[in-house]
Records
---
Amino acid sequence: MENKVLIILNVPELDETYDIMIPVSRKIGNIIELISKFLIDITDGKYVVDIHKNLYNKESGYRYNNNALVIDTDIRNGARLVLI
């Protein structure tokens, strides 16, 4: 299995969608931190980090546990996720 997967991330507060590669060996909470840093960079600091954000499966509405490893979830290439 590859060590990264391509996700389609929707960020409602920015009204944007991004294609992002995430490592499968990291915890969801760490992925949220990495995504937040990415969003700060591409919005020139306009994105405000909120430690209470969660990652959801866009189709099912399932909220991913922050302590779960990506590889142990249903997140695979092309997964549509929402950060809210």
---
Amino acid sequence: MELIKPSIGLIFWMSISFLTVLFILGKFAWPMIMKSLSEREQSIADALNSAKKAKEEMAALQASNEKLLQEARAERDNMLREARDTKDAIIAEAKNKAQTESNKILAQARETINNEKMAAITELKNQVATMSIDIAEKILRHELSRDEKQKSLMANLMNDVNLN
């Protein structure tokens, strides 16, 4: 029961030992502990600042990457547009050249056809004239094979010449 009701001597010596331990801790341990806590607090603050700085740098890099990506997309779109325009220009030029060549070939073909047509018509006229002369010659020989008919023809021709 004595532990439940401590005596004055026990309280005195306990108080002296507590104050001694408190003095020793205050003199030697607390400054070291406070210094360690301060250093720990400083290192945590530095780590937070470094993390914040790294986060800002990451955001800047991400923005830079996004900007580069947008520029690359814009450049790609520009190149595709230029390629499409070039393709359309080449196709249009090829169509124009083909149309010009086709018109030129058609004109030459028409001219050739007209020339051949005229040559054929001339040849046909020459053949018709030759055949007409041959036929007329044959008819005249047949008709003028007798002397009476020759004299009669001569008389008719002379009458015609006098009448005109």
---
Amino acid sequence: MADLKVTQTRSTIGAKPKQRGTIRALGLGRIGQTNTLPDRPEIRGMLARVPHLVSVETATEKDDA
């Protein structure tokens, strides 16, 4: 399964409380912070709520085997 690399690009100052909560639930908290999350519908829905605050990339996986 693919992973998503989510980076917070804008501040939550001035954002609605629900949007701040979504950012916290994504594991972010400050500008420039990055978190790798599984590509699931729940995560995609959360990202759809805050597209103006984050940037999303597909994470590259390294095979060590």
